[in-house]
Amino acid sequence: MELFISGCILLLCSGTAAVLLGRSRAASWVATLGVWAGCGLALVPVIQTLAGRCPDPLRIAWSMPGGSLTLGLDGLSAFFCLPILLISPLAALYGCEYLAHEKKSLGSALFFCNVLIASMLLLMAARNGLLFLVVWEIMAVSSFFLVVFDDEHASVRDAGWTYLIATHIGTGGLLVFFALLGRQAGSLDFEAMGTAKLAPAMASILFVLAVVGFGSKAGFIPMHVWLPEAHPAAPSHVSALMSGVMIKTGIYGLLRALTLLGAPHATWGWALVVIGLASGLFGIILALAQNDIKRLLAYCSVENIGVITLGIGAGVLGRAWGQNGFVVLGFGGAILHVLNHAVFKSLSFFGAGAIAHATGTRDMNQLGGLFKSMRWTGLAFLVACAAICGLPPFNGFVSEFLIYLAGFGGVQAGATETVVLAILLTGGLALIGGLAAACFTKAFGVLFLGEPRSDLANGAHEAGAAMRWPMAALAVACLGIGLFAPLAVRLVAPAVQIVAGSDAGSLGKALSVPIPFLSAIAWASFSLLAMAAGLFFIRRRLPRGREEAMTGTWDCGYARPTARMQYTATSFAQPLTHLFRFILGERKLGSVLQGLFPRGARFETHTPDAAREWFFAPAFRAIDRGVAPIRRMQHGRVHGYLLYIAIVLILLLIWKAGGQS
Amino acid sequence: MNAMRWILPLAAWVLAPLMLGIINRVKAKFAGRRGQPLLQLYYDLFKLLRKSSVYSRSTSLVIRVAPSVSLACAILCTTLLPWGDLRAPAAFTGDFILLAYLLGLARFVTVLAALDTGSAFEGMGASREVQFGALAEPAFFLGLLVLVLQSGTLSLSSIMSGLSATTWQSSGVLLVLVAFSWFVLLLTENSRIPVDDPNTHLELTMIHEVMVLDYSGPDFAYILYGASLKLWVFAALIVNLVVPMTSLPVWGQIPLFLLGIGLVAVLVGVVESILARLRLYQVPKILIGSAALSVIALIVKLMD
Which domain holds residue B197? Predict the structure, then answer.
């Protein structure tokens, strides 16, 4: 545990050093070095824990109410530390080059980045409600400052506000959650909370609070509104860190809360399945309609959180029904998907960042043909796209495979409720998977293939080494987890054992069930790669001396096709956005062509976020109107404020005196 | 027994192009023509393999690699298919998920290769392909749910070997519903009428054919061969479902299975001859409808 703490301290110290170094070039390298060293130190106890040797928790008495300051690791938190420890160093390295040409001082950005990483690590280790909340808040605030890095743009400041408000709505839920649970348990220590006897109604209220609190961080529909605002606004390595890693703290919190609430109720599982299905479908449909690559990726995170929640829902239902198959496959798939999503989503944000860095735009309709100028970024992004779609031989397939199997296992069980769950799981996942394939063929195809659609795309250049290597490392990780799936499942086992709760003893055998068919999947992946390579080799040898000819794309006899005639991102997605128009509410702006020789025309489409447009905006306007009278108290006159203080103190005195008599 | 298992993949690799020959012959008969030779696709493949290739200047690595990847996917799919009692060479829990995702990977690379050319035509085809693919996938999985519920096992080989004449007596309705739903998928995924028209090369209505406009030489041979294998995969699933082969001895199952594949090809030819192509906006409806059939089958099964 000491190593873990010293890792966090190192992160904070190097961040502070970066602030002091300020504008000098050394600042980013000092901070990055700190991240690498800190994460390296923290990795040791994490690996020990996953291998089965939990370090002793560290208890420090403190003067705050509600238990002691306790830090410890178990299988669940150690597994969730893995994405943090894997992605953060790569993101820091990537950031060094990404921000190298920035005119501003980088001190604060580097500092908050290190604080964010340290706070996420401490969050995983926190074993006390109060400590958890404090670290949670530090995490939220430090990431807010990272989002508003480019604060000279009004859109970025707006995004920052949205994020700050959304995250505090969630924190509000958590505050109530821990207060209520702490009251029941008599202590804020997780150990005591886990053993508290809860009335069923109380447990359900706590569950709802946990879903609201942690769900707003994770991005459940309709609390996802901050993701598509904050991710595009932040610098790309920060988006990678936030989307790949930070939103998973919401999932961690939800799983941790489930371990504290005792035996789950079946309704909770159904609620999670429905939330997962809604987030998955709405997320990917909204992603399809986006033209800004980082917004698209942000919505896709909502989709992946939905897939994870589907798995968790199946696991919770399995616990409620006492069926270990659901528990292992549902929780196992969900937890593995956490790691997988961290890897491929960071990778795709790194890729998007490299594009934005090279061309200065994130609008896909301006880009195209980047594969020729950015080969390495293109390959890495291609791997990320295939992995996000859950295609073999990459990692996304393994976790989705487990969740699918949970569904099919439900049909095998044959009871009506398990079959309903199976229809939701498999039908939902298949539709999400198919739409994801549409979304990411669009993303890769429009960005990297075809001809450049504007001069911005013509001037693209490959990213430098410090940005290329992190992408290469993550692409290898995508393939590695896919090819060595059985090993990856062993990694998940300790975490599954913890969320499976008290009946962990009987899980021992169920945990090894997925190993044989995952080995089969691994074999299939290897043979797929070998066969494709073999076929490609044969195909290269086939012409035997005949020359390859190069010509223009077949244009059906049309004399002068231009790059602007290519299918764009909008047109590629149009059939599907048309099919789901009742969800999207797409707005089309443009003029009708007039005359035989029209002089020009404009056409724009906008896809507003339904939750933001129809739910949050009216709600906040109503709140704004409601609190308007209170605003009159805020008049800026000092003597007025003094009067308020005096009145409050006198009231307190009266209350105190009244209480004693 | 182990060597026997490889007969089905071998048969698929050798005979798949013949299916297209049969389909074309049936269509020709309906139109009152003599039609091309049954083995035309074989001739085409050999001719193409000996030719050199022409690539567009717009293209990159993707279009060069895509045919190999999609053909590898199709070949791997054939090794997952059972044959009545004969288990597939690769049979494991959840193999049908791998089958569906291999077909997904093949679609993914074909669509990217189409976008690689930068042609508006191919972009159009690609866009439609992903739309129909997204709707076809749930239909396939829901059909599988029915079969898993019916058989209580989780691998294609054990599902199919569990289907016998008695299954048909007890729950024939379910099998018919699933078989019909999968036949619609076969037509969709293999770009046949009424979803797509394999004969029109240059019309705004086509889907698959337009995506492969810019292939030539060995690449095009790979694509054509892969497409015929994909047709075989769907046909084999349907034959396994509809023809209760397990009542026969193994040597009798082989000709019966091949006959079944031939009949599916004839049926496709007949459907292509007597139906008109649907308007594009109608296609999602029949895909959602075929998924609904499987859900109905599930409900029927649960009511028992």
Answer: 2-303
